Structure prediction request, 442 residues.
Amino acid sequence: MSEKVVILPVDKIKVVERSRKHPEEKIFELQDSIAAIGLLNPITVDGNYRLLAGERRLLAHKNLGRQSIACTIKEDPDKEGKLVIELDENVRRLDLTWYERVQLEKRIWDIKQEKNPNWSQRKQQKLITPEQAGSPGTLSMRLQVAEALETMPELAEKTSLEEAYKELKRYEEVQTKMAMVLRKPKDIEEAPLWANEHYVIGDAINGMGSFLKGQPHSQGKAFQFAEVDPPYGVDLHRRKGRNSDNQSMEEYLEWEDFPKLFETTASLVKECLAPHGFAVFWYGMSRHQEVLEILRRVGWTVPDIPAIWYKGEVGQTASPDTTFGSCYEPFFVARKGQPKLARPGRGNVFNYTSLQKKTHPTEKPVWLLEELLSVFCFPGSRVLVPFLGSGVTLRAAYKLGHTGMGWDLSERHKAGFLATVQADIAAADAANAERVADANTI
Prediction:
């Protein structure tokens, strides 16, 4: 059966008996669509210009006052062939699934918003999916579910948009409950009430896996930021400095299979984060390219250039006669989704003197961690610290009004952490007493 596409006057199209009895239903929505973006599919006629498919499109053109219409001409189909064409047009053509439709709408929304910040749901509703056109749910509901599908792909398994939306709301309720479990002390004085719960003795990879296990996809995403300082294999046992005691070094276990364990860690951390969040990954310079490739492979967005912690002009080296002392430590800032910095425009160099005395081989100064958290975390954030060590990151979180949790294998380091939290409280009490005394003297 030959065919060709031509432009014909609408008054030449002959409408004979049709199976659809009420082509005028919802015709105004179709007219709006054709007026806005044109005719997407030509109607179909036979060689005598008798209509085979597209009666509603033809009617919409007439109502709009249009004089011509694009037509596909099917030359001389028999009676059966005409009926098959009509059936195929109205039944066998596959519509988009509900989730394909909402994702397409979301893509249009994002493009329009980028071009015009004042683009509104009302404008999009009129342009693409007016409510009376039979679109499932409201546009707001569809956009919410479409965004959630990016991190909760299992929602597409639901039979309808309504079911997916209900599941999304259930997830949000679960996340609210998780926030209650990860309770935030109102100030540093309440930290001991929760510190013992936040510092979990155990393996970080097993801990994160258990944290996520058995929950619907994304329900474990309770954290807005992660600080990850894994045992990345810099051979500290050989290079241990005078500031690390022997017992502390014995409890520090470096990874023998770094690439495999780091990839697992990076993937689990990403899974634990909210749809939009940052993570800091510390690493040794000898593993720069390896770490960068692994982070990108598991789905993180990572710039080529790392950030650095500059420790001062006096560096550390095991061979001072032949090599420079190391004065800095690098870390990658990895991004999931499109999070925003709490302090936009901050440079990528963090200048803080290293500790002279450490309770953990890789302990960092609390003021460095406070600075990091102030850059990446908005008030009340939840911080994931898979490798707690001395627990300094949680201490910094408490000081800034955040909370969090993590894992470590050492009971001794946990005891040290709890002791330092008590010391932080004492310091806070002393500072407060001094402020009160100063106020009384004014």
Notes: The longest helix spans residues 411-441. Confidence is low (pLDDT under 50) at residues 129-134, 180-185, 216-220, 234-250. The longest strand covers residues 273-282. The domain at 188-437 is CATH 3.40.50.150 (Rossmann fold).
